[in-house]
What we know:
Blueprint: H1 5-17, H2 22-32, H3 42-53, H4 71-83, H5 89-96, H6 100-109
Amino acid sequence: MPYTVREYAEMHFVYGFCNGNARAAERGYRERFPGRERYPDYRVFQRVHNAYVEGQIPGNPHRAGRPYENADAEDDIVEMALEEPSTSVRRISRRSGIPTTTVHRIVRRNQLHPYHVQ
């Protein structure tokens, strides 16, 4: 089970309080929060710190999953589908260099139907 965003923030606070010493942070976390069900390993403190340094928030579900497609690429795909209604998704994929599944997703999202005159 993943930690909550608050728990990650507390880990990072303790890690900083211990001057970046992960093993001391592990001990300090146990002392500071004695009633917790579980306690993170020293490596978790290192990973949490690295995530914050890289601009990520550990445990944040908003960044989880597939990244959003490029807006310019989406415009190009929609333009190709509208220019040539008889073209296929595979042909659009080959021309644009974008994976077929991504082209399918963009076409569906824009309610376009290749091979059907609109």
